């Protein structure tokens, strides 16, 4: 079951005039171009639910940088991970990426749950998203249920700020998944684990 879509307000106010709202729409258009590039590369599936545009992407499991003891440290793909699940969320009114969300996904295959987890924010070089590595039992069609809680951040603007007030559910059914693991960047001579400056 998916939450019906609705368009958030986008009207001139004491916080943003028409020209400033156009700047927000231009930022959203850039994010949509990034999402389209990800769709072409990895087959993103996109739906509107509530006041969000929600995209599901399944890729090969991949390593990440994370902070440890004040430094960025590269973490290779966990030994058992063979998939990476991404959820990209944009505002349905202006198209901009929505940060600070609490997103939970439940993934099922052949009627059996294979994943139920909260997805953290992941910085990406061209498409910010929420995501995590996971273990899938094999190639095939998977059902993904996405739950987005109303965010806790404050909203500016008495006209446009009344948005994201309710939980949102999005269902992606029979989505083709394929196991895989991205190679270590250390296999490439240009990728070095140098200390952050």
UniProtKB/TrEMBL annotation:
Domain of life the protein comes from: Bacteria
Biased composition range(s): Basic residues: 179-189
Entry keyword set: Signal
Signal peptide as annotated in the record: none
InterPro entries xrefs: Metal-bd_Tp34-typ, Tp34-type_sf
Annotated stretches, region: Disordered: 177-197
Keyword Flavoprotein: no
Statement: the UniProt record of this protein carries the keyword Signal: yes
Family under the similarity heading: Belongs to the UPF0423 family.
Designated name of the protein: Fe2+ transport protein
Lineage: Bacteria, Bacillati, Actinomycetota, Actinomycetes, Pseudonocardiales
């Amino acid at each position: 079951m998916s939450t019906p879509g609705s368009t958030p307000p986008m009207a001139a106010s004491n916080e943003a005039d028409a020209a400033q709202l156009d700047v927000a729409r231009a930022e959203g258009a850039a994010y949509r171009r990034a999402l389209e590039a990800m769709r072409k590369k990895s087959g993103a599936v996109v739906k509107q639910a509530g006041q969000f545009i929600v995209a599901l992407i399944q890729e090969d499991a991949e390593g990440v940088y994370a902070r440890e003891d004040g430094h960025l440290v590269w973490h290779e793909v966990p030994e058992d991970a063979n998939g990476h699940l991404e959820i990209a969320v944009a505002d349905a009114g202006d198209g901009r990426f929505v940060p600070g969300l609490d997103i939970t996904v439940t993934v099922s295959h052949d009627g059996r749950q294979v994943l139920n987890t909260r997805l953290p924010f992941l910085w990406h070089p061209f498409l910010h998203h929420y995501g995590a590595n996971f273990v899938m039992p094999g190639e095939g069609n998977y059902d993904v249920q996405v739950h987005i809680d109303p965010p806790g951040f404050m909203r500016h603007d008495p006209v446009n700020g009344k948005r994201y007030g309710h939980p949102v559910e999005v269902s992606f059914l029979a989505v083709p998944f394929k196991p895989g693991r991205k190679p270590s960047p250390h296999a490439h001579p240009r990728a070095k684990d140098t200390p952050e400056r």
